[in-house]
Amino acid sequence: MLSLFTLEIRYEQDVVQARQRTRDLAEQLGFDAQDQTRLATAVSEIARNAFQYAKGGMVKFYVAEDLKTFVIQIQDQGRGIPHLADVLAGRYTSSTGMGLGIMGTRRLMDSFQIESSAQGTTVVMGKKLPKRTSILTESQLWQIRDIVMERSPQNPYEEIQRQNQELLRAMAELRKREEELIQLNRELEDTNRGVVALYAELDEKADSLQRANELKTRFLSNMSHEFRTPLNSILSLSRMLLSRMDGDLTSEQEKQVAFIQKAADGLSELVNDLLDLAKVEAGKIEVRPSSFEVSDLFGTLRGMLRPLLVQGSSVTLMVEEPQGISTLYTDEGKVAQILRNFVSNALKFTEQGEVRVSAVQEDDTVTFFVADTGIGITPENQERIFEDFIQIESHLQKRVKGTGLGLPLSRKLAELLGGSISVCSQVGQGSTFSASIPIIYPHAYEIPSLLQPTSPLKLAHQPILVIEDHLETLFIYKKHLQDSKYQLIETRTLHQARQALQQLRPAAIILDILLEGQNGWILLREIKGEVETHTIPVIVITVVDNEKQALALGADAFLIKPVERLPLLSKLNTLVSQGKPQKLLLIDDDPAYRYVVKQLLVETSLQILEAESGQKGLALADSEQPDAILLDLKLPQVNGFDVLDQLQCNPTTRSIPVIIHSSTHLDAEVKSSLAERCITILSKETASHAVTASQLQDALIRAGLIWDT
């Protein structure tokens, strides 16, 4: 550090001089008046302690070597401070007031260190220089020292007068702030009263709306039931008349009865839709999940939907045979109802071409598509068609009357099953309606054994046991762990979790506490109480902040939902590695590239191993067992593809995660082949240094390494 000034304290007036010199130096270093007072008060307090308890001492003023901090050291040769730990913790009280000055000084400074023994006490405290102060040179510091030394010390009485003025200014400032706080509290009270009144009004409105909604639902339900009896009578009598059970009809009478029957059919359809809609809104509709195959559902739909085709129509109904779709466990009847509504609408508004029904699976969701070559829907109407009773005007509307409830009902049914509905359409080219339905109904309490997650452990992957009953969250975890060194083993109940723990030892456990109808704390106690499982790291991830309880029961980490990918992987890497030093092996023949990578990782705790050839890389991998390998594909003699093959053939190295980092251009087929054998493929030809660093960080975290810069 660069010394500015040294002052010996032998007499009481030296304490006052120390205060003056501190203020003068602080002024020259660019501190404002308030900070000058803080610094002077802190030095005065510690210097007075040195004089009072040690009969003297030495005050030294410095600027830190980085030229960013003003440092003051006060040293005495007294008997030391008894109970220093209690003083610093705020637990010590003394009739002399000893300790209060130390605590107050520590609060005034940016840094504070104190050492005390029977040979004396040393206090070192620092205050960061103001940002507006330019970086000082050594010559400028000497100039500041000369200016301060040339100033003659003030009379002690003048210093006391100045202290009193500073105290008065501080009291005036405090009074002003107190008045501002009082005014602010008044404004807050007024605002709170307004907010309370607004909430009361909103609650009243919500109650009114709830009552109105209940009345509407009850009315729709009752009306629908009351309508059904006379409608059924009209339909039955119409059929009787048209079948000539009581004699012949004239052609005119037959036409009239046919009109009556058609109107009754339309009204019956409306009543049925209204009743279903009322049940959904009232929450009274019941979901009855069962296991079924999409191929069986489509087979049933073919028979049900073909009668909807008008004889001689130029529209073809195509139902594609589903391929590679898992068994569904949801309400088959409601899925069929959604598809019937889609197909019925498609046939109504398609004059020629085809209506095609298909399905695809993506992760834990099956998406059903109904595509037509009809008149299409304008962009502004693509959301309106899902509103109750809305029917878009078109030249076909008069010919194909409907209720305007089919699509709203379909959307509500899909949401009831935990899915969603969307539409993509172009005017004149057709529309495609899609319904995404979870393979397993989210609120199912028991899942059939054929649907239990059976995930054979992949080579070079560490199992992570997840106990989570929410399908969307499981899907998110699966995406987070995708392309990492970890493999998700999902369970949705405590019973399934216990069974899984009997069959395998996971690298870590992710536990949700708020399981439906079950208590996750019980399982946490079991895991940490059993000899076989107590060393398995457990991360509790839930929506409620119960971190203290989780850690008290033995959890190794706690996170709040929703969890981002990198924080989750970083936490897993830290727990799984258990503090062991981590090694990264670079296999690349370009020394400049290896240097760049080492510079990118210079602030991490990773141990970097280097190999300039494939042969040396394989030897190092076998002997050093690195935690991950960064591999270039273009290597002399043994290229990167061969290195990858030999790594996987060797039992010692096959489980090491590999990251491909190469400038070699790869086609889609080669990339697909490599993706099955490595964590990720990075290109050396990135846009910037920052992008390279970010991509490398992401890849290393996915490979299980701790990024602790």
Question: Could you explain the architecture of this structure?
Answer:
With 709 residues, the chain is α/β, with parallel strands linked by helices. The protein folds into five domains: 2-154, Heat Shock Protein 90, CATH 3.30.565; 187-285, Helix Hairpins (Orthogonal Bundle), CATH 1.10.287.130; 293-438, Histidine kinase-like ATPase, C-terminal domain (Heat Shock Protein 90), CATH 3.30.565; 452-577, Rossmann fold, CATH 3.40.50.2300; 583-702, Rossmann fold (3-Layer(aba) Sandwich), CATH 3.40.50.2300. Helices cover 46% and strands 19% of the residues. The strands form six sheets. It has a five-stranded antiparallel beta sheet. Strands 7-9-10-12-11 form a five-stranded mixed beta sheet, with helices on one face. Strands 14-13-15-18-19 form a five-stranded parallel beta sheet. α11 packs across α15 (565-577) and α17 (614-624) runs parallel beside α18. 28% of the residues are buried. The model is unreliable at 449-454 (pLDDT under 50).
Name the beta content range: 15-25%
According to CATH, the homologous superfamily of the largest domain is: Histidine kinase-like ATPase, C-terminal domain
> Would you state the CATH class of the largest domain?
Alpha Beta
- The strand line-up of the biggest sheet is 1-2-3-5-4
SSE class: alpha/beta
User: What is the averaged pLDDT score?
Assistant: 80
Give the N-to-C terminal Cα separation: 28 Å
The third-level CATH topology of the largest domain is: Heat Shock Protein 90
**How many DSSP-defined strands?**
24
Overall number of structural domains: 5
Q: From the alpha-carbon coordinates, what is the Rg to the nearest angstrom?
A: 39 Å
What would the principal axes of the Cα set say about the shape? elongated
Query: How many H/I helices?
Result: 20
Relative helix content: 40-55%
CATH architecture of the largest domain: 2-Layer Sandwich
Poorly predicted runs: 449-454
What about the largest sheet? 5 strands, antiparallel
